[in-house]
Design a protein that fits this description.
The protein has 196 residues and is of the alpha+beta class. The chain folds into two domains: 4-149, Immunoglobulins (Immunoglobulin-like); 153-191, no CATH class. 26% of the residues lie in helices and 39% in strands. The chain has six helices and ten strands. The radius of gyration is 21 Å and the shape is globular.
């Protein structure tokens, strides 16, 4: 494949219907519009993705959602998956009528880069979560709160810095220009690439 994965896969739970566990993966590829190839392996049986949806194109980046489902059975199943014959990842599908193991997370980062220096280990809680996951895998991980912090945008982008320095009345009347839109879009795209 000529495409390079720049973000992902980021898994999404799509629900349970008729004893099937529906999953999706978000992936950003850089290169061309060739759909990514997902292979799912359950107990030694490989199956391709059921659906690949191109969600957005930005510059030479293609944002895809891959969809598949797994038949639930009377025991937990480890589901392995790989995109474009790359690294293999896995998750666990619960048995039918099994209580779910769920964890919750909130606030993915820091509002201010200076705050990072005040913390001994910025990934401390992620390491705790990983230890638990390795012993008894979660079925679902709910993320709430801020997934990225963009406060630095106001300092990083000159058109926004200039706009913010104006009195409120002038800011309200000032247009949001095409240049501002392009810079904000690029800023957020780069931020998500960096954080995810």
């Amino acid at each position: 494949m000529s495409n390079t994965i720049v973000v992902g896969p980021i898994l999404g739970f799509r629900g349970i219907k008729q004893e099937r566990w529906y999953t999706s993966a978000l992936v950003v590829l850089r290169g061309d519009a060739t759909p990514p190839q997902l292979v799912v392996n359950i107990g030694g049986l490989a199956q391709p993705a059921e659906k690949a949806v191109l969600l957005k194109t930005y510059a030479a980046n293609y944002i895809w959602r891959l969809e598949w489902s797994v038949k639930q059975i009377n025991k937990e199943q480890v589901v392995e998956y790989a995109i474009n014959a790359g690294e293999t990842f896995c998750y666990v599908v619960p048995a039918i009528n099994m209580p779910l193991r769920i964890c919750y997370g909130s606030c993915f980062g820091f509002h201010n880069q200076k705050d990072i220096n005040k913390v001994k280990d910025k990934n401390g809680m992620w390491k705790v979560l990983q230890k638990v996951q390795e012993q008894k895998p979660y079925h679902l991980f709910f993320m709430g709160g801020d997934q990225v912090y963009s406060d630095q945008m106001w300092d990083a982008l000159e058109p926004l810095r200039d706009w913010l320095s104006k009195p409120l009345k002038k800011r309200v009347q000032a247009p949001f220009t095409a240049e501002m839109q392009a810079q904000v879009t690029q800023f957020y795209f780069d931020l998500y690439l960096q954080m995810w």
